[in-house]
Amino acid sequence: PMCIFSGIQPTGVPHIGNLLGALFNWVSIQNSLQASRASSSSTPPPELYFSIVGLHALTIPQNPATLAQERKDMLASLLAIGLDPEQSTIYHQDEVGEHAQLHWLLSCLVSMGRLRRMTTWKGKIATARGTATPVEPEQGGPTAGEADEGIADVDEEHRDLSLGLFSYPVLQAADILLYKATHVPIGQDQVQHLELARDIAATFNKRFPSSHTTPKSSKSRREPPFFPLPQPLITSTPKILSLRDPTAKMSKSAPDPASRILLTDDDTAIRAKVKRAVTDTERSISFDPEGRPGVSSLLSIIAALRSYQAQQTQSTLDPFAAASAGVTPKEVAQQLDSSGGGHALLKETVTSALIEVLGPIRERFQQLKEREAQSGYLEQVAALGREKASVRAKETLGEVKERMGLR
Ligand code: ATP
Ligand code: MG
User: Fold this and answer.
1) Which terminal Cβ of the chain has fewer Cβ within 10 Å, N or C?
2) Ligand 2 geometric centre to CA of 57 (Å)
3) Which domains does the chain have, with CATH numbers?
4) How wide is the angle at C-alpha 406 spanned by C-alphas 118 and 388, nearest 5°?
5) Digit-coded pLDDT (tens) for 168-185
6) CA 351, CA 354: separation in Å to the nearest integer?
7) How much distance in Å is there from the Cα of 22 to the middle of ligand 1?
8) pLDDT in tens, 307-352
9) Backbone angles phi, psi at 262, to 5 degrees
10) Model pTM?
11) What are phi and psi of 89, to 5 degrees?
């Protein structure tokens, strides 16, 4: 049976990069599966798990009060964009203890060498060192065979980085495998981590082929692998760039708040931030991500928002074709250029598209926060998600422990 898992860290209100690059895709998967569920009853319904991964947030220092707030805000954000707690299992990873337990069991199957080669880890080391250019994880990482030059001196380089940060991808593998997920919607930056999850799954399947208590005779029959190897569903939206510096990606943690547009930004804030967005001095409008990153990122935002709006009105039956509906950045460029409005028209168009899409989402976000204050609504949604997730989590962990000899 098909099972989809994806997660996001509660490290701040999502920005439009998060929305267009990841979260809207979750909603379109949910909605298209609902449409296909309604039309065919023969196949078992796919399961959807969308997780707020608080344990991952702790791998770098967090202010407890801020984290507590951001956990709630992330749940409100996921509901505000249209995830439905009845159709999807929406839950806090840190409330389902099996994630941490499976992390431990899997951590004993992965070598330090394998983890040291993770691009994200190498990027953190480069940043901590403060000298070398940080490896940009979002650029898509080097492959496992790459030389480890410069990270031999473990004690010196890793002094201030936590064991949890090193183990981040193993926890991610545990998240995915706990639900025996078959598909994982991710951005390009996460491809290497998913490869690790697949390798861990394959290692487990090979080393623990079936329960050691099962009699030999029934073992000989071919059984399906315990963990399916999870496949990536890579988002088609290109990386959205910082509004202030089009050589960097838009990010929650960048110091300048004007570099990103948040789900909670009001119309005035949206207008002001787009107005200040860095573009270039060419008068025409063209889509050229290499030569004109600022302009091109704005075009990508318009195209992605329009595609999202098109999906809202017609839900497709194929969850994997969902992202192809709508218009391309190139087409947007041609439309704008032929009407001759230049950069002013480009920015007006981005602004109004953002206001149209974010307005209703922001309103729902605020309503959810009010409902939470009045009746603890988010708490109830979290409890429902926790219960649903725990069923599968307990089942998998029990089987894993048994196979490993802990029963
Ligand atoms: P941080 O700066 O704290 O790392 P972030 O903005 O990179 O925050 P993440 O929580 O790391 O956000 O990522 C959540 C999801 O959003 C991931 O799937 C990631 O690929 C996607 N994403 C993040 N930034 C962008 C972006 N600028 N454009 C498109 N997708 C993005
Ligand atoms: Mg990130």
Assistant:
1) N
2) 11
3) 3-235+376-404 (3.40.50.620), 257-370 (1.10.240.10)
4) 70
5) 999 999 999 999 999 999
6) 5
7) 8
8) 888 877 765 544 454 445 578 999 999 999 999 889 999 999 999 9
9) -95, 155
10) 0.88
11) -90, 105
